[in-house]
Design goal:
about 180 residues; CCB3/YggT; mainly alpha
Length: about 180
């Protein structure tokens, strides 16, 4: 029972922190105004790990590589701690652990996209003038706009979020299968 609770807490903490690191890279990629309260909170929560990495890993091509590498390092620590809690030898992660950590980061990114899209879709029905809507629209637009060009509007409903849910769920299944195949999780 203790190991189940510990795994749950490790999973929650590391998944949330990894998602925040990916959100930081995502916000910088879409050029979200740094004065935004959400952006300020994300930067404050992640500066301690990203700023030192940025000295070694500069951004390139509009991508904040330091935040992405930080998320990958967090995923590695997550895998080591999870394996230690279930009684495994963390050394058995190497060398495949590096690839599994990359798949973990990809899973976090896909889940983040899924949740952002879900929150935006629900808010668009419940309170379309909510203060979070411009932020959510700016973050999800790079994924939804291409889908909006190919999906019809049915009775005024935007079907792009539904299509994105399906695509992301399929990708999550692929990532889960790859992780299970490589590591047996």
């Amino acid at each position: 029972m203790f190991s189940d609770i510990a795994r749950f807490l490790i999973d929650i903490f590391f998944t949330l922190f990894g998602a925040v690191l990916l959100l930081r890279a995502w916000m910088q990629n879409v050029r979200l105004a740094p004065g935004n309260p959400v952006a300020r909170g994300v930067f404050q929560a992640t500066d301690w790990i990203v700023k030192p990495l940025r000295r070694v890993i500069p951004g390139a091509g509009g991508i904040d590589w330091a935040s992405i590498v930080a998320a990958w390092l967090v995923a590695l620590v997550f895998l080591v701690l999870t394996l230690a809690v279930i009684g495994g030898n963390p050394l058995m992660l190497f060398p495949m652990g590096f690839a599994i950590a990359l798949l973990t980061v990809l899973k976090w990114a896909l889940n983040l996209l899924l949740w952002m899209t879900l929150i935006m879709a629900v808010l668009s029905w419940v309170n379309p003038s909510a203060p979070a809507m411009p932020l959510l629209y700016q973050l999800t637009a790079p994924f939804l706009n291409p889908l909006r060009r190919v999906t019809p509007r049915l009775g005024g409903f935007d079907m792009a979020p539904l299509l994105l849910f399906v695509i992301v769920q399929v990708l999550l299944m692929v990532v889960a299968r790859l992780s299970a195949t490589w590591f047996g999780w």
